[in-house]
Design a protein that fits this description.
30% of the residues lie in helices and 21% in strands. It contains 11 helices and 12 strands.
């Protein structure tokens, strides 16, 4: 087995090129025909975790995403029970970052052939995802596209809302604000092109027991319905993405109503740690930096991936969430009360770092983990 170092780009996904392509796309888009003050007019949003439009005294937020190449593992194993949860999670977790409460979701499923049994499983998974995120499944589209798609693909769009003037954007961040890290349930739905390449190199079967101790504080592996015996590697890799509507939206709603552990203005910024890893923090302010002093413990699968693929620490933290799926930046004076409030609802939450004035950069207790671009 080769021990040459692996990274996301060599496995087929170049984050830098992807970012350049997105910038090119955005630069080519025409301005909205909706003008300021009209329903549907665009609202500038630092950070880009969702698109915001005007809607009277409210603001509507939209996010769209898919499950990515995690679906290739699910398709290979014929285990689709969690992919609807993943699809909804990747969308609603982005809406949360701007302070929007998710309210509705629509899905898009493309398949090479129609199979009622597959669609039944997907429907159950979407229903469970809607339940966890407290949204209405408002509709969707299923396309049978032989010759265009070779295996099932899924994406969707989520709609959320918040009162005018109450967006959470990071604009009010200050040096000394503290960072609260919320634990992930595992790999979530990013980096699976690299995951699949590492699994292939390792030679380990997805249907065999995981080659590591799968236990991790505060998380459970959601097993396939008919599973028996030890937890398989496939079950670990397909563990559904954690949905953070509870507790994050509950925190926002209580603070907005005056009964929460802090004022709404003390919640400075929220980042979904997805593709790009910790570099996502750079999206939230144009001059301040971020230091992760006490990172949450990574799940054992991350350690196995790093070892099996000879992936260095910086690449791991740029590709994966490394145990922390979301970060909330809050005022220093109310951090303890916010931490206590969240910890009662999500064990494993802790203060992981602070906002710095050392320039727009992410630093880490591991000095090799350093990001100055997203």
């Amino acid at each position: 087995m080769s021990d040459a170092p692996m990274d996301y780009a060599s496995s087929g996904v170049d984050i830098d090129s992807e970012a350049e392509a997105v910038s090119s796309l955005i630069g080519s888009l025409a301005n909205s025909v909706r003008k300021k003050g009209e329903f549907g007019a665009p609202v500038p949003l630092p950070g880009g975790f969702g698109g915001i439009i005007e809607f009277g005294d409210s603001r509507l937020a939209l996010a769209t995403d898919g499950v990515g190449s995690k679906l290739q593992i699910a398709n290979h194993l014929g285990r689709l029970e969690g992919v609807g949860i993943d699809c909804i999670a990747m969308n609603v977790n982005d809406l949360i970052c701007v302070g929007a409460e998710p309210v509705a979701f629509v899905d898009y499923i493309a398949t090479p052939k129609t199979d009622p049994s597959v669609h039944s499983i997907l429907g159950e998974s979407l229903s469970e995802g809607c339940s966890r995120s407290r949204v209405t499944l408002a509709g969707g589209e299923t396309a049978t596209l032989p010759g265009i798609v070779k295996e099932l693909d899924m994406s969707g769009t989520a709609l959320g809302w918040f009162p005018k003037g109450e967006a959470i954007t990071g604009e009010r961040l200050e040096c000394g604000d503290l960072l609260i890290g919320l634990p992930s349930s595992g790999i979530h739905s990013n980096g699976y092109t690299l995951v699949r390449a590492i699994v292939e190199r390792s030679g380990h079967s997805l249907v065999e027991g995981a080659p590591f101790d799968t236990s991790h504080p505060g998380r459970e592996i959601e097993r396939f319905p008919d599973s028996e015996g030890e937890i398989t590697l496939g079950e670990v890799l397909l563990n559904p993405t954690r949905i953070y509507v509870d507790p994050v939206i509950d925190l926002i709603l209580e603070c907005r109503g005056g009964s929460g552990p802090c004022d709404l203005s003390d919640i400075k910024a929220i980042a979904h740690i997805t593709g790009g890893g910790l570099s996502n923090l750079l999206r939230l302010h144009d001059s301040l930096g971020w230091h992760i002093e006490n990172p949450l413990p990574p799940h054992p699968e991350f350690e196995w991936l790093a070892k099996s693929g000879s992936v260095n620490s910086k690449e791991m933290h740029r590709t994966f969430n490394m145990g922390m799926g979301m970060v909330i930046a809050v005022s220093k004076g109310c951090c303890d009360s916010v931490l206590e409030w969240i910890s009662e609802r999500l064990t494993g939450t802790s203060v992981v770092g602070s906002v710095t004035d050392d320039g727009r950069i992410v630093t880490h207790s591991d000095p090799s983990v350093r990001f100055d671009s997203y």
